[in-house]
Each structure stands twice: as structure tokens, then as C-alpha cells.
Design brief:
11-stranded parallel β-sheet; alpha/beta; Udp-n-acetylmuramoylalanyl-d-glutamate--2,6- Diaminopimelate Ligase, Chain: A, domain 1; flat; 344 residues; 10-stranded parallel β-sheet
Length: 344
Amino acid sequence: MPDLSLAELQAHLGGTIRGNPDTRVDGVASLQHAKPHQLGFFLSPKYLAQARASQAGALIVPDKLDGELPQPCLLVANAHASFARAISLLQPDPVIEPGIHPSAVLADDVIVGAEARIGAGAVIGSGAIIGARCQIGPHCVIGPGVRLGEDCLLHPRVTIQHGCILGNRIILHPGVVIGADGFGLAWDAEPKDGAWLKVPQVGRVIIEDDVEVGANTCIDRGALDDTVIETGVKLDNQIQIAHNCRIGRHTAIAACAGIAGSASVGAYCQIGGAALILGHTDICDRVIVSAATFVSKDIREAGTYTSVLPLMKHEDWKHNAAHLRRLDTLVQRIKLLEERLKEN
């Protein structure tokens, strides 16, 4: 791993040094577990006591920090983002030698860009284009006609179905499925008792630049129009994005969220874990949806939205749930009482 001084980190990250600029670090760790050769960080004054007790050799801290620390510090405007960049400097990803593994299976007309790496057991279909410096992990499957931009990283067992288009610097974690059929069904009453008829899904998935998709997340292809994931979107593990959805630029969605077909989520939104968004729903830009919230109608104004009952003991929850079931009846009774009061 690289060995950098605080002054060298400052040259990359900016900020102001407090303490010895020649202090050297070669890795990162939490305040609790950091050693004298490692870099730590914190965001909030509530961690000040923990920082003072830390063995970290140096710290990245907010530039508005009010309080002295025993360690040399780099004071920056955004400590979290600066620490993320410091990690990349001190613990870079391993260098992968380019080339095509002998066990990989590529159609004759596949185009592989310069310095790309195709891992063991990967399968790439006819007409696919793999951009320069892409890394395709073991046992990935890339369908016919897929276009993959430059500097993409596909971890093992990623599947990209036919015709999908991905931009530059895409990261797909293990088990991601891009472009499977959406859940498109039409009820056919002709057979005895009726039956579901599959609606062919003829759209694609379009993923723009700098998108990261977590493990086992599925993004379905469009039924007619495309499913679109815009620039800079970050998706956690085990998310379902159904056909014809559109996720706006730089939106972040936490694990286990479910977004039904043709829903549109605006730019710079934050969708909490296990949130559910009803189909054909529109959410405007800069909306925060709390974890486990059910979004059943359009959101047209930026802000934070929550639909979850607070945690309580089960017996209390049962009583409150019983009252909720009678809420409409109670409202009607109150209206009657109000009318009687007006009459008197």
C-alpha cells in the first residue's frame, strides 16, 4: 500500500493541516481500531472524546471543528467525501492484468476494447461491445448486442441481457441482473377459466455513466419504452426496479426497496431501505423517502416523507391498529357531533 504524508494528502484533498505535516500513514481504519500508521476520521463533535482516545496517526476532520486533538489533522469542508478519496489513495484496488481467460466464451464478432479483462467462464454474445479497460468477472453473462462503455467493473455472476446499453465507469456487484423481462401479463379470458398471457418485453435498460448497482439487484427491461437509470445513481443490494421505471441522476436507493413498473423517481432523491413505490407514480427531485415507507401517490414537492408507525410494544400496536380500522367511523361520528354543536 502507498505510504503518504499528511502534506501529500493535502495536495490531493485540499484543506488545512493542524500539526506535523510530515506525519505518514499507509492505511485507514475506524477511530476505535486505528493504529499509529493509519488514518481515521469523524464527522460530528459527539465523536470528539473517541477521537482523542484513538491511536490513529492522523485524522481527517471537519474544518469547523471546535476543540484540540492530540493527533495531526487535516481540516476539510467535507470530511466524509475527503476520507473516501483518501481511502482510494491509500488502499487502491489491485491492478488486474488485461486479457481474455482461456475458458471465456466470446462470439466471433464481439468487440473488446484495449486493456480489457474477461474472466474465467464469462460468456459474451454476438455483436456485444466491451469498452476499453473494462473488467468482466468470472461467470458473467453478457447478451447479444449489449454495449458496455469504458472502465466498467462487473463482479462475478453479473447478467446483462440482450440489447442493453451501459455507459462509462459502471460498477455491478455479484448477482446483478440487468434487462430481464418485466412482469408484464395480460388476462386472457378465452381459455377455460381464463389464464395469464405473457406480454413480450421489447424495451431495453439504459444505464448512464458512473452508476453503481449492489449485489442481487434486478433492473427489468422496458415493456415498450426503455427502463432508464440516469448518471450517478447509486443502488444498494437486493433492489427491484421494474419495467419502464426512470431513476433520476444522483439518486441513492437503499437495500430491499421495490419500485413498481413505470414509476419515475427524480434527481438527487434518497429512498430508504425496504421502501415501496407504487407503479406509475412520479416523485419530484430532492425527495427523501424514509425506510419502509409506502409511496402510493405522486410526490410533487421536495422534502422528507414517512408513512411508518413508530416502534411500540406489540400489545400497544394491536390497540392502535384496532383504532385505525375504526378511523373512518370515528371521523363520521365527530362530524355529527360538530353539526349538533352548530345547531345548538
